[in-house]
């Protein structure tokens, strides 16, 4: 592998963005993410949980907003941050309702909460991003 290609692969492990606007099938998104995160070392169980959480966030954007935009991941000192952004900021349930187990709300996000260090939602007038911070150890 030449130096430029190696540097590109190392950079992809640190951060990446996948365009969701054409609604790629979830298995395609999972394979893309797993391919980016497995360069170097990654415990198999931790990678599986990361892919599971990303899949839940992407599927929620597909099913509940209709306007998914992107999946972004970035490595930080505290963990791996996953972010799924959509163009439906008004379609956000309150975190309190989801965390309190509102009827029919947040079953998948309860799984996300159990596998992550933290998760949340932030939005502005044009976009909403649901994020999850995954442990890396």
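-> sequence recovered:
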């Amino acid at each position: 592998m030449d130096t430029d290609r190696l540097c590109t692969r190392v950079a992809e492990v640190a951060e990446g963005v996948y365009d969701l606007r054409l609604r790629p099938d979830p298995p395609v998104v999972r394979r893309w993410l797993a391919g980016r995160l497995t360069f170097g070392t990654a415990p198999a169980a931790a990678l599986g949980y990361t892919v599971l959480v990303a899949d839940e966030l992407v599927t929620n954007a597909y099913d509940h907003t209709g306007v998914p935009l992107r999946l972004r991941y970035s490595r930080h000192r505290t963990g791996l941050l996953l972010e799924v952004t959509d163009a439906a900021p008004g379609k956000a349930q309150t975190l309190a309702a989801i965390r309190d187990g509102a009827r029919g709300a947040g079953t998948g996000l309860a799984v996300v909460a159990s596998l992550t260090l933290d998760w949340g939602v932030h939005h502005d007038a044009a976009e909403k991003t649901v994020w999850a911070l995954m442990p890396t150890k």
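The chain has a mean pLDDT of 83.
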